[in-house]
Amino acid sequence: MFSFLLISFVLLAFFYILKDYSQQAVIIWM
Question: How far apart, in whole angstroms, are the C-alpha atoms of residue 23 and residue 5?
Fold first, then answer.
C-alpha cells in the first residue's frame, strides 16, 4: 500500500513538472 502511494506521488509530481515544462517550452516557441 505504501509503495502504491509512493509511486502515485512520484507520477503526480512528474506530470506536474512535465506540464510546467511544456508550458515554458510553448512560451519559448511563441
Answer: 27
Q: How far apart are alpha carbons 5 and 1 in whole angstroms?
A: 6
Amino acid, single-letter form, for residue 28: I
Number of residues written out for the chain: 30
pLDDT of 26: 76
Q: Report the candidate in 8, 13, 5, 1 with the shortest Cα–Cα distance to residue 21.
A: 13
Cell of 26: 510553448
Residue where the block lists cell 519559448: 28
pTM of the model: 0.55
